[in-house]
Fold HPF/RaiA family ribosome-associated protein.
Amino acid sequence: MKIAPEITFRGMSATDALEADIQEKLEKLDRFFPDIMSARVTVEANHKHHHKGNLYHVRVDLTVPGQELVVSRDPKDHQAHEDAYVAIRDAFAAARRQLENYARKLRGNVKTHSPPSHGRVVELVPAMDYGRIETPDGRLVYFHRNSLVDADFDQLEAGAEIRFAEEAGAEGPQASSVHRVGKHHIVG
């Protein structure tokens, strides 16, 4: 860390053990992501629950290049947070997940989900259990009767709108997980 971390306790006394636990967790984050510029951790005891033990609220605020990552673990409905160490552990686990996502984003390693391919049935050969789909760019994609999901191959008609997952087959492109598009489905 470029700047020494700030650790603050509110509504409770600071203990060497709690500070050491927080310091250890901060060091682990720093080893995982050495570009952390600063860190602020606040542990607060909420005294609102007289019929139960104190609940602890933990906030971890990390400054990294170009962004600030904030984790705030509110103990409202989480009785495990009657233990300050558990509340701290949970907050740092969430901070680690945010750092992992941020690191992935920096590397350009972000998951993207492409929409399923779509097209129209242009040929059906019931005797051979297959058909062909024409994609918007004019390619023909083979599909087998068994690739059809939630529809009856014998009820399928030429011109039906289809969405599918495309994969390379022995004879060229083939469709798997073929779904008939309902009249209310919007294909993007």
Observations:
- Confidence is low (pLDDT under 50) at residues 184-188.
- The first strand starts at residue 6 and ends at 10.
- The chain has two helices and ten strands.
